[in-house]
Specification:
Elements lengths: L2 H22 L8 H13 L1 H15 L6 H28 L9 H24 L7 H17 L1 H21 L4 H25 L4 H25 L9
Helix pairs in contact: 1-5, 1-6, 2-5, 3-4, 4-5, 4-8, 5-7, 6-7, 7-8, 7-9, 8-9
Length: 241
């Protein structure tokens, strides 16, 4: 195996591994390592169907004669952000909900974060892959720089957005009358902030290109860590349907 692939895999997984260690400290009753690994790997696996879904949706979007701004908004908010948040949610819905290991509300947020870290790990590896051969020193410097940026940016964003969805899913188990509204609200918030983050770093110029993503990360961090503290006070999972 070429050394560049090995290095990209190591550095691509590293941000996810560091964040995983951090988030696991939030759980006072640690989940089984096998379950954590399983969910992490499922998060990595779904990158493939998400990739093909995004290609398909982009091809459909290309058929419409719309303004460039409308095109970019639809692309970043729906094609990219919604597809990624929805598939990450599906993993937890299909592989974690009704699992005997899901025994406290905080677990829902934690497993959503683990899925996001698996997804982000594969995404990081792909971003680190050089388009063309580079001298070793230049390749290492670029890899480290991109890895740091993605550690504090995209990887953290994935965990925060998924945690918002996880919080809304946990709350939906207890709010029977407003269950769908609670879950839909969490997904919408995650998609909107995820989409705005991507749109701002790709399409916005000047100081706002930095200000908007930082504001989004800080806002999400506040929501997520407030959610963690609230769910810690909830002793058990409510009825799951």
């Amino acid at each position: 195996m070429d050394y560049t692939i090995i290095i990209c895999i190591i550095f691509g997984v590293l941000p996810s591994f560091i964040w995983l260690l951090y988030y696991l400290t939030k759980d006072m009753h640690p989940e089984p390592k096998r379950m954590i690994l399983k969910v992490f790997l499922w998060g990595a696996v779904i990158t493939l169907p998400v990739f093909f879904v995004q290609i398909g949706l982009k091809n459909i979007l290309d058929q419409f004669n719309i303004s460039p701004l409308a095109y970019q908004l639809i692309y970043w908010f729906l094609v990219i952000a919604f597809s990624e948040e929805f598939f990450k949610f599906l993993v937890v819905k299909m592989k974690v909900v009704n699992s005997p290991h899901l025994d406290e509300p905080l677990d829902v947020m934690l497993y959503m974060v683990v899925v996001a870290l698996g997804f982000a790990a594969v995404e990081n590896v792909l971003y680190l892959m050089p388009v063309s051969p580079l001298p070793f020193n230049q390749f290492i410097n670029k890899t480290i720089f991109v890895d740091i940026i993605r550690f504090i940016g995209a990887t953290f964003l994935h965990t925060l957005c998924s945690a918002v969805v996880g919080y809304s899913l946990a709350i939906s188990f207890c709010e029977i009358k407003t269950r769908r509204i609670a879950l839909a609200g969490g997904i919408i918030v995650a998609v909107l902030l995820h989409g705005l983050y991507d749109f701002s770093i790709m399409m916005v110029q000047g100081n706002m290109k930095i200000f908007i993503p930082i504001t989004i990360i800080l806002t999400l961090a506040f929501l997520v860590f407030s959610g963690f503290e609230k769910l810690k006070k909830t002793k058990s999972i409510c009825k799951i349907n």
